[in-house]
Amino acid sequence: MHITKPLLEELYLKQGLSTRQCADVLGKPVCISWYLKKFGIEARPVGCTQGKKRKVKLGKKHHAYKGGKIDIVCKVCGDTFKVYPSQKKQRVRCKTCKKNHMTENWIGKEFGFLVVIGRRKLSGAIRPTWLCRCSCGNEKDVTTADLKSGFVKSCGCGLLNSGENNHNWKPKVKVECAWCGTKKEIQISRSNSYKNFFCGDKDCYGKWCSENRVGKNHPKWKPRVKVKCAWCGKEKRLVPSRAKSYEKSFCDLDCQGRWISKNKCGENNPNWRDGAKNDPYCVVFHQKYFRQEIFERDGYKCQNVHCTKKTDKLSIHHIDYDKGNCHPDNLITLCVSCNSKANSQRRWHTAYYNAFMQRSGKTIST
Fold first, then answer.
1. Predicted local confidence at residue 125, as pLDDT
2. How many domains does the chain fold into?
3. Distance between alpha carbon 200 and the CA centroid of its chain, in Å?
């Protein structure tokens, strides 16, 4: 429905409907108050619906009444004056002291590179500002808060000055290189941050560290831990982190190889396959057309959902690890990486790939 001025006057003024009721009648979820301003229709006071005026409760009858005004002491002159409880933290001066504070004369005072020469109120500004002249000759309007806090000290020319001409300039300190003794100048803040100083060349720092930060002198040094070789029993000192990382420690690769050949062979090996050795594959497994059918069934993709996709080379995996069982239900397409991972935890991988074949409906009834 198109909104017009006569229609809005009929609903809002004559019938006395609220802005929300007018929006419901017009069937538009829009702000009716905007149309009131557009057509020049004066809005009714809050609560005046259909000619009824709202009764305003004042004084003790008001719901937010807190006992009226209270007496507080002026921090400047010491006189007492009355304010509402909500203004207790804001009003710290009486009216006279506040007026004197606002009209305090700062003309002639210096703030950094600025000298106050006058006071004026700019159009659109809430509070008057001070007209200041910089040492370079430029004039600038600065507020009272900026002058008091020292936030503004110049017209902006002080930021462009470099070296000793900058108002924040501080003299540099001479220090010596801890290795070669060469002198150089650095900032005071840097001289307080470090104990030793070095030249710009990295060789000085490296040579100094090779002499002074080795062994127990290194800040991250920790005492070595004594461990015994799992094969020959000789004692060896290791860093605590390396001692905790491995269950067994060895003198060298020779002791490690002898220990593995004795303790990780046969059934003790994690890749033990119940005594199965190089069992031959079935004849059909090596036929090109047969392998092509398995790849086409699986869409030439690795069927492992958690595949890391390190390689694109595909292979065919026997789910029950029986090389003689070449039934299509027992074969699945995997990449070379996933196929090698399936050699460990065989029971879990068998159950996982069997469930996957059943969910995907790729099993063939025999």
1. 66
2. 6
3. 34
Distance CA 135, CA 122 (A): 23
Chain Cα centroid distance, residue 257: 49
Q: Is there a domain that residue 76 lies in?
A: yes
d(C-alpha 88, C-alpha 90), whole Å: 6
Residues 232 and 252: beta-carbon distance below 8 Å: no
Give the pLDDT confidence score for residue 275 in this predicted structure: 63
* Calpha distance 41→108 (Å, rounded): 54
Whether 307 and 343 map to the same domain: the answer is: yes
| Residue 208 placed within a domain | no
In sequence order, which residues have a C-beta less than 8 Å from that of residue 183 and are 6 or more positions away? Answer: 174, 175, 176, 177
Residues 134, 149 contacting (CB under 8 angstroms): no
Tens digits of per-residue pLDDT, 97-125?
A: 877 776 677 888 998 888 999 888 776 66
For residues 250 and 310, membership in a common domain is answered with no
- 113, 135, 142, 156 from 160: Cα distances, Å: 13, 14, 19, 7
Q: Decide the pairing of beta strands 70-73 and 114-120.
A: unpaired
Low-confidence residues of the chain, pLDDT below 70?
1, 29-31, 45-57, 102-103, 123-126, 158-162, 165-167, 201, 273-278, 363-366
Q: What is the pLDDT of residues 246-270, one digit of tens each?
A: 778 888 888 888 888 888 887 787 7
How far, in whole angstroms, is CA 27 from its chain's centroid?
Answer: 45
Which ranges of the chain does DSSP label H, i.e. alpha helix? Answer: 5-9, 19-26, 32-39, 95-102, 144-149, 188-193, 202-212, 240-245, 253-263, 288-297, 336-341, 346-360
Is 289 in the same domain as 349?
yes
pTM metric for this prediction:
0.30
How many Cα neighbours within 13 Å face the side chain of 157? Answer: 13
Q: Which domain holds residue 187?
A: 171-203
Q: Of 92, 98, 102, 106, which is closest to residue 147 (Cα–Cα)?
A: 106
Q: What is the pLDDT of residue 366?
A: 36
Give the end-to-end CA distance of the chain in Å, rounded to a whole number. 72
Name 165's Cβ contacts closer than 8 Å, sequence gap at least 6: none
